[in-house]
Design brief:
With 407 residues, this protein is of the alpha/beta class. It folds into two domains: 9-289, Alpha-Beta Barrel (TIM Barrel), CATH 3.20.20.70; 337-407, no CATH class. The chain contains 17 helices and 15 strands. It has helices at 19-24, 53-56, 65-79, 103-116, 136-145, 159-164, 173-184, 202-214, 232-238, 247-263, 283-289, 316-324, 338-349, 363-374, 380-384, 392-396, 398-405; strands spanning 9-10, 30-36, 88-95, 119-129, 149-155, 188-195, 219-224, 267-270, 273-275, 293-297, 302-305, 308-312, 330-335, 356-357, 387-388. The protein has a nine-stranded mixed sheet, sandwiched between helices. Strands 1-13-12-11 form a four-stranded antiparallel sheet. Strands 14-15 form a two-stranded antiparallel sheet. Helix 3 (65-79) packs parallel to helix 4 (103-116), helix 4 runs parallel beside helix 5 and helix 8 packs parallel to helix 10 (247-263). This is Heme chaperone HemW. Keywords: 4Fe-4S, Chaperone, Cytoplasm, Heme, Iron, Iron-sulfur, Metal-binding, S-adenosyl-L-methionine. Probably acts as a heme chaperone, transferring heme to an unknown acceptor. Binds one molecule of heme per monomer, possibly covalently. Binds 1 [4Fe-4S] cluster. The cluster is coordinated with 3 cysteines and an exchangeable S-adenosyl-L-methionine.
Length: 407
């Protein structure tokens, strides 16, 4: 089931923000995230804020969901009303499975964002999708509505691995959907992989990488399997039905991904993300990683505006009820202190191929960076230029490097 939201101070009923936050909005870029919390079934590893039909209960439905999102968008416009309107650089519709909504509803939501704040002329507009939830026709509708990028949840090309993960699509459906998206005119197509699943062999992962390359996509995300408490996969491991993931295996899989993708013309730009060109990089995720602003629409969605971060109530029924009352769906919020902002900046920027400027570190952090350089975890040439950039070995040990750079 979905994880627990953090604690924080209450969000005002009208969702109002401090004047300082409203004045600063969009200074480092502005994006919109739309959370669609619906899935046809729950994958065994997933603890995202998603709901199957049997879990929804009364008061929430896919049919009325777009109206609720547009209601929150209207509230957002009121909250930021007297501030200079931000230009929307990126939109990312995630989930859940956004493409369980009719393509016309996803088009209506995007049109609402454009009417409210205005999409930049070169805005990146992404939707996530499960491979079995799209058709050539729905993809053409989404592209015509202004969606420029699609991210498909492939996870693996091995039927046995898909079965362990409780994925519903066939082994070849993800790459077929990627080709359909290209045919529909999408500028950029991403395939997601998960590695380190119990029972996955090196040959299985090699076959997945080969399928990704053959599909002709221009972006790949690859993540080690994380076993979250409360998931079906965690329960199976506690019962001894499946072994726990191995860190050594995960490292081997990562090296295999770097080798195969590098040979196919991809370059890493974030520890878990590779792109064929700078234009193919996910600009919305870069917005998160570089501390820009975004408004999150939907149940459980998180937002960040001018140093204030807040998150919405999780259940779609509670979300819709608050908006029907004219109230903010925000559950709680926090204002990041300077030391918290610094910690997040180091954690996120160090994962990027562009790296972290050394001059943002204190004396202890610079000493830690020197140790990491001497140990082969930071690139020596970039270090000489004043940046901390992870080497391939450093990427495998990124969390340890971060700990050495922070007090």
């Amino acid at each position: 089931m979905p994880g627990v939201l953090p604690d924080g101070e209450p969000v005002p009923r009208d969702g109002s923000l401090p004047a300082s936050a409203r004045r600063a909005v969009g200074a480092r870029g502005f994006g919109v995230y739309v959370h669609v919390p619906f899935c046809a079934s729950r994958c065994g590893y997933c603890d995202f804020n998603t709901y199957t039909a049997s879990e929804l209960g009364g008061g929430a439905s896919r049919e009325t969901y777009a109206d609720s999102v547009l209601a929150e968008l209207a509230l957002a416009a009121r909250v930021l009303g007297d501030a200079p309107p931000p230009r929307v650089d990126t939109v990312f519709v995630g989930g859940g499975t956004p493409t369980l909504l009719p393509a016309d509803d996803l088009a209506r939501i995007l049109d609402g964002i454009d009417r409210t704040w205005g999409l930049a002329a070169d805005a990146e507009v992404t939707t996530e999708a499960n491979p079995e939830s799209v058709t050539p026709e729905s993809l053409k509708t989404l592209r015509a509505a202004g969606y420029t990028r699609i991210s498909l949840g492939m996870q693996s090309a091995a039927p046995g691995v898909l079965a362990v993960l409780d994925r519903r699509h066939s082994a070849g459906r993800a790459t077929a959907a990627a080709l359909e998206a290209r045919d529909a005119g999408f500028d950029h197509v991403n395939l997601d992989l998960i590695y380190g699943t119990p029972g996955e062999s090196g040959e299985d992962f090699a076959a997945s990488l080969a399928q990704v390359v053959e599909a002709g996509v221009d972006h790949v995300s690859a993540y080690a399997l994380i076993v979250e408490d409360g998931t079906r996969l965690a329960a199976r491991m506690r019962r001894g039905e499946l072994p726990y993931p191995s860190d050594d295996v995960a490292a081997d899989r990562y090296l295999a991904a770097e080798a195969a993708l590098g040979a196919a013309g991809f370059s890493w730009y974030e520890v878990s993300n590779w792109a064929r060109s700078e234009a193919a990089r996910c600009r919305h995720n870069l917005l998160y990683w570089t501390g820009a602003d975004w408004w999150g629409l939907g149940p459980g969605a998180h937002s960040h505006v001018g140093g204030v971060r807040w998150w919405n109530v999780k259940h779609p029924t509670a979300y819709a009820a608050r908006l029907a009352e004219g109230a903010s769906p925000g559950l709680a919020r926090e204002r990041l202190a300077p030391d918290e902002q610094h910690m997040e900046d180091v954690m996120l920027r160090l994962r990027l191929a562009s790296g972290l400027p050394l001059d943002v570190l204190d004396e202890a952090g610079r000493a830690g960076a020197e140790r990491a350089r001497a140990g082969g975890l930071l690139d020596a040439d970039a270090y000489a230029e004043g940046r901390a950039v992870l080497t391939l070995r450093g990427r495998l040990l990124a969390d340890a490097v971060v700990r050495d750079l922070l007090p």
